[in-house]
Amino acid sequence: MGALLSREALQELDQADALASYKEQFVLPEGVLYLDGNSLGALPVGAAQRAAEVVATEWGQGLIRSWNSAGWFEMPTRLGDKLGQLLGANAGETVVTDTTSLNLFKALASALRIQQVDGPGRRVLITERDNFPTDIYIAEGLADLLNSVGAEHGVSYEVKLIDTEAELRAALGDDTAVVSLSHVNYRTGAMWDMAAITRAAHEAGALIVWDLAHAAGAVPVELNASGADYAVGCTYKYLNGGPGSPAFIWVNAKHQDRFWQPLSGWWSHAQPFEMATNYAPAMDVRRFMCGTQPITSMAMVETGLDVTLSADMGQLRAKSLELTDLFIELVETRCAGFGLELVTPRAHAQRGSHVSFQHPQGYAIMAALIDRGVIGDYREPEVLRFGITPLYLSRTDIWDSVEILREILHTEAWQREEYSVRNAVT
Ligand SMILES: *Cc1c(COP(=O)(O)O)cnc(C)c1O
Fold first, then answer.
1. What percent of the chain has pLDDT over 70?
2. H/E run at residue 200
3. What's the gap in Å between 255 CA and the centre of ligand 1?
4. Is the pTM of this model over 0.90?
5. Cα gap 409→412, rounded to integer Å
6. pLDDT by residue (tens digit) across 204-227?
7. What is the DSSP letter of 19?
8. Does any ligand 1 atom lie closer than 6 A to the CB of residue 211?
9. Beta strands in 163-263 (DSSP E)
10. Which of 385, 386, 392, 397 is an active site residue?
């Protein structure tokens, strides 16, 4: 790009952009440049009307009849199948339910049950030190539960943390039960090679769980082609399902009917309305549900999914890489000399759809940006994080955001005292 880099040149590219019209499918406030769609996606224009319909008509008029007549009961699997199209999944392998944290617990527990038979003695869960904290906490919580219950029998599960791919490969061995990784790192945007790492885990006899929180709807994912075992992820990030919208879990068909997961609530039963005393798990992915689902929130997931599904994933990925490249180049040229250090990999194959820069005054700089309508977020330690969502961002949005960043750095506007006061949610 280099010499061509001007706002006018970018405007021309925007006019030729096949995805440009998608911006109209989202409600974005006037004067806001939204670079946080990796944390909470924007509101699709159809969502408010759909919410009103679910509340006023399906709930208000349909009442309990809507479990049947409005398709509420089937919603988790129906939406799971839709979402699965973005993940390289087959129908019947994905269900929209619960939270990512809970789904991770179910996936890990179920993987450990399989290993009890296929790989007895495998007691190590490997994950990344730099993983999203819940992924580490849940693995430790599960290991702790199993250890405390099995103490008399000498049961001793262990969570091992790795930092690099070399460390991961070195740690894989005949004691490894399960590997749990985030496909795209929440802080740095670094992306693992799903197929290669899955192969390495399997060669060591381990099972693998992928967390797709920052990947689903952002990068092409091929779960079946990679041979993965389990995957979980959020719908409120790149999938625009709304704050706290239900998460998803994908389970390779070959594992589905082996064991059941321990949160074996009635929605995971083969015949929930037989109200049977004895548990019999559903013989499909429904066994990964637990109890009654948040239907109003789940209905919002569909509105977001429909927008993403109508776009071409190849075009989406190409634009994501173009915009993230552009953002990096602009920050490194227009904001040179101000101490911003790129922490996101430059290689396309190793990059998700957000870009992070480290700076000692990262928190105050981000607060100043947000005050000027450029909404990104801040992650410890000292990381400014910018989510690049190709469905509703243009090249000129990227240019304008970086110009505001440049102005903040030049004038040291971040020095204002109020910018260093920490909010509860950063
Ligand atoms: C956002 C995120 C989560 C969030 O989990 P919740 O249960 O929805 O709070 C989990 N894992 C990763 C990798 C994330 O980025």
1. 99
2. helix 194-203
3. 24
4. yes
5. 5
6. 999 999 999 999 999 999 999 999
7. T
8. yes
9. 176-182, 207-211, 230-233, 248-251
10. 385
